[in-house]
Write a structure and sequence with these properties.
The relative contact order is 0.09. The two termini are 60 Å apart. The chain has four domains: 234 residues, Four Helix Bundle (Hemerythrin (Met), subunit A); 113 residues, Rieske [2Fe-2S] iron-sulphur domain (Rieske Iron-sulfur Protein), CATH 2.102.10.10; 111 residues, no CATH class; 114 residues, Beta Barrel (OB fold (Dihydrolipoamide Acetyltransferase, E2P)). The strands form five sheets. Strands 2, 3, 4, 8 and 11 form a five-stranded antiparallel sheet that branches. It is of the alpha+beta class. The chain contains 16 helices and 24 strands. Helix 2 runs parallel beside helix 10 and helix 4 packs antiparallel against helix 6.
């Protein structure tokens, strides 16, 4: 309890709690990243972080949801409940990191606002296989944000406990949305059954714990029998209540806590005004009823918190019959109403003298030292939780599917010299070499041998690029700049980053190099004609060429669908991936650049078919080392697998 608001009321217990939580999170992330890089060294950093943060947040959410019923079933878990809000906010921060990285990875740097893209890139709500799972995750993240933002006691006081509690019950809706987010998303793209098994086991465990806690609560809700003529009900016998503790009874549908203290009995509502905690499971400390959840205190005679605090709970009248039978008036009095305590006879007072000392009756309040036995139990639980976190991290990181061997030379800018060709897709025939930097010009004028500028590699006739046709893409999720293509086919020199997979290459254009007009074509290297390979009907998946060739991993499937939609919408050439068994029984992958037979832009006409199994019929041709599939987009057909 506090008479004023502070950002965080730090105590030694809270510091230890948060140290364990953040230490466990750091252990999880380190193991996930380490094992992930060891198993899949080809994985990109952003993909690894998205998966690490997402799986950690979901694991912590299971812990958050388990603490409540565990504390109801066994009071020794109450120290974990004490700072559960810290754990919840921590979980939200990791979920936010997951969502932020994913939003940038799949939706930023495109032709739409990332948030608009998130809501509109996939709208196939009637398809289980293509259901827009990212929107489910975004809705869950919004709920978790509202909970984290209102977790402080300032909001609890100003919203009132019932409203605040209702808002925070939204965690169950968020959990359901996240289960759908995972089941309809990543679980459809993983080869191992382990992630689904872990998610299913976690969900079943939570259901079992909540049902067990509810069953225990229902036992408390049995109405007491035995009514007196004046409307009072017989609640219990005085000797059944231990000194310093309470007996919880249900009358008129409301739980009432009858406390025994200093040879007296008093009855108050069982509901704490802070977070609806069960006062009857607390005990008397310093003459006050102390809530077991967060230590809020009330005087037993009038249900009012000691000054300067203002919380109050309803009180109830009691009557003692035959010196031992306790009768209760089921009509609650206004909160804070003083009721003269019942005084017990000396014989009854001695019945439970000293009964609350030692053993399993150790009582925890976060602002007091933790009892020795309880501290030992909590340390054991924390150790098991840390081992479990480590096991989950290692297991999930180890079953990631192969991501392909594409390469994106984002840290090396190369100068490509050749002839620009704008159809069937914008690309560059690498036909000659030229050095165009100001540094090169200066060395030539000084009479010294020319060399490429630092950080750039000039293409020469003996490089693997020479003679190749390299399709062009722009930065981010865009195609090549329109001004570059406006002048039509011509000789020029481009600066860009190489993207390569299976020996096929693209150029991410960063700019047109100076002296482009002075490019000298090699007469022995002329662009070959586009050669027809006949009419074909192929089955595969439409992807964006930029990501699939090496910029992102994975670059296909449902997990990458929204990113592929943004890239193709932004002008990156669509591609068609066909997989079949190779001659040695291994998987053979065929990649074809996809164009429209009518010569019009194809991108916008295939967006709703991206990342799905489809069948395409059209003319296949060879353009240098690239294959091209020309088709009528209206004939593309979805297939079941």
């Amino acid at each position: 309890m506090s008479a004023g608001y502070v950002a965080v009321g730090w105590s030694p217990g809270k510091k230890r709690y948060d140290t364990v939580v953040w230490g466990g999170a750091a252990l999880y992330l380190a193991l996930f990243v380490g094992v992930g890089l060891w198993v899949r060294p080809e994985i990109t950093a952003e993909t690894l972080l998205i998966r690490a943060f997402g799986t950690l947040a979901l694991t912590l959410l299971h812990v958050v949801l388990a603490i409540g019923p565990l504390a109801r079933l066994d009071r020794r878990f109450l120290p974990l409940l004490w700072n559960r809000r810290h754990l919840g906010v921590t979980m939200f921060l990791f979920a936010l990191a997951h969502g932020g990285f994913a939003l940038f990875q799949f939706h930023a740097l495109g032709d739409r606002n990332p948030l608009v893209s998130l809501l509109t890139s996939n709208t196939q709500w009637t398809s289980v296989a293509q259901f827009p799972f990212q929107q489910l995750g975004a809705a869950a993240l919004l709920i978790l944000f509202l909970m984290a933002a209102t977790s402080h006691d300032f909001w609890l006081t100003n919203l009132t406990a019932p409203v605040w509690k209702t808002l925070h019950m939204g965690v169950y809706l968020a959990y359901a949305l996240l289960v759908g987010h995972v089941a309809l998303g990543v679980l459809q793209d993983v080869a191992s059954a382990l992630p689904a098994a872990l998610l299913g086991a976690g969900a079943l465990a939570l259901v079992a714990l909540h049902l067990a806690a509810a069953a225990k609560g229902r036992a408390l809700d049995r109405e007491v029998a035995g009514h007196a003529a004046d409307g009072l009900v017989e609640a219990c016998r005085a000797g059944e209540i231990r000194d310093g503790r309470a007996r919880i009874v249900t009358v008129g549908g409301e739980r009432v806590a009858i406390f025994r203290y200093d040879g007296k009995l008093s009855a108050v509502s069982n509901v704490c005004q802070h977070q609806n905690g069960p006062l009857g499971e607390g005990r008397i400390l310093d003459g006050c009823i102390t809530c077991p959840w967060h230590g809020f205190q009330y005087r037993p005679a009038d249900g009012a918190s000691p000054a300067p605090f203002t919380e109050r709970v309803p009180t109830f009248r009691l009557r003692l019959v035959d010196g031992a039978r306790v009768f209760l008036d089921p009509r609650p009095l206004p909160p804070g109403t003083f009721v003269e305590p019942l005084r017990l006879e000396d014989a009854i007072r001695e019945e439970s003298k000293g009964s609350v000392k030692g053993g399993r009756d150790e009582f925890f309040v976060g602002y007091l030292p933790v009892p020795v036995g309880l501290a030992r139990f909590v340390r054991g639980v924390a150790s098991v939780a840390l081992v479990g976190l480590a096991a989950v991290a290692g297991a999930l990181a180890s079953v990631q599917r192969p991501l392909g061997q594409g390469e994106f030379a984002w840290d090396t800018e190369t100068e490509f010299c050749g002839r620009l060709q704008t159809v069937p897709v914008p690309g560059l025939w690498v036909t000659a070499s030229i050095e165009t930097s100001e540094a090169t010009e200066a060395t030539e004028e000084a009479g010294t041998p020319a060399r490429p500028p630092s950080g750039a590699t000039a293409v020469s006739a003996d490089t693997p690029f020479t003679g190749a046709f390299l399709p062009l893409v722009g930065s981010g999720k865009h195609g090549p700049d329109a001004q570059l293509l406006a002048a039509g086919d011509r000789d020029l020199t481009l600066r860009g980053h190489r993207i390569e997979r299976y020996g096929k290459r693209l150029i991410e254009v960063t700019g047109e190099a100076p002296r482009a007009g002075k490019a000298v074509a090699d007469p022995g290297r002329t662009p070959p004609a586009q050669v027809s390979l006949g009419h074909q009907t192929l089955r595969g998946e439409i992807v964006d060429s930029k990501c699939w060739f090496g910029v992102m991993k994975p670059a296909q499937g449902k997990a990458h669908k929204d990113c592929a939609v943004r890239c193709i919408s932004g002008g990156a050439p669509p591609a068609f991936v066909v997989r079949a068994a190779g001659p040695q029984g291994d998987e053979h992958t065929l990649i074809l650049l996809l164009v429209a037979a009518d010569g019009a832009a194809l991108g916008s006409r295939v967006l709703d078919l991206v990342a799905e199994p489809v069948e395409i019929e059209g003319e296949v041709s060879r353009l240098g080392d690239q294959l091209v599939l020309s088709t009528d987009p209206s004939t593309i057909r979805r297939i079941s697998g």
